[in-house]
Fold this sequence. Notes:
Layout: H1 2-5, E1 11-15, H2 16-21, H3 23-31, E2 35-39, H4 46-59, H5 75-85, H6 87-100, E3 107-112, H7 117-123, E4 132-140, E5 157-160, E6 163-166, H8 192-199, E7 203-209, H9 210-223, H10 230-242, E8 251-254, H11 264-271
Parallel strand pairs: 1-2, 3-4, 3-8, 4-7
Antiparallel strand pairs: 5-6
The structure holds pyridoxal-5'-phosphate.
Amino acid sequence: xxxxxxxxxxxxxMGAKDIKRQRPNVxxxxxxxxxxxxxxxxxQTLVDAVSECMRYWVSNCNVSxxxxxxxxxxxxxxxxxxxxxxxxxxxLIVQVKEEFGRIPKKMKLLNCVGGGSSAMxxxxxxxxxxxxxxxxxxxxxxxxKLHAAPLTNGSKIGILxxxxxxxxxxxxxxxxxxxxxxxxxxxxxxSPLHCFLKDTKRARYTSASDExxxxxxxxxxxxxxxxxxxxxxxxxAEAIKLAPKLKSSEIIIVNSCGDSLKDKDIIKQKxxxxxx
Length: 276
Ligand SMILES: Cc1ncc(COP(=O)(O)O)c(C=O)c1O
């Protein structure tokens, strides 16, 4: 959409697996004039798409500029993305003050975490408040060893896409495989910004399984006037776990950062029907 606004040509690198499982998004990008470049290397998901995009850019940097849609990659790309997504919390802080007259002391801000851009955007303006930050990673299928949750599962520091970070890896430091029902969370690394928030204990990180996310999607779509995509459904799963333990004076805000429409094929396949 930014390329369209400025009359620029736009190539979007996307894993071949994600092209299949995020079809409505691909159609929307094509309608806006973008060329989708399928990436067929490795796991054919986000991690390979970012690698391929970087390869293209370094080979064509005289005629192209790179944008990354998450807070990952070398330093400047993280800053550009985090600054942009911070608009979410600039708006949220106004809404919270309107709703509660102030920023409540015991307030939990829940956000799913893939590369970490929407969580950074959701939390940014609340950094110097008492708000509690909870990041929810993709725990993957319930009975599988695979996941996409480096912060929750004690992954070690490694280098991925030009930045040091906690990353899923083997003993030799080779990047490990991931699995998640959610294409947007299915990434072995995590923004260095979140690594810092974890190390300094400013944020707490946990995970939700594929099954928990699907259940949360069903419940929220049935009871609320929204239908979250599978990424924020991970955050809603944590809200569902937390809420019964809290006093009624405590406040949870979940960033419903995506709409389920993009996941309709996979939801239909897993649950037999799709509600929105
Ligand atoms: C709707 C939605 N939410 C969340 C994410 C996760 O990314 P990030 O952690 O950068 O917010 C994605 C990634 O594609 C997404 O599409």
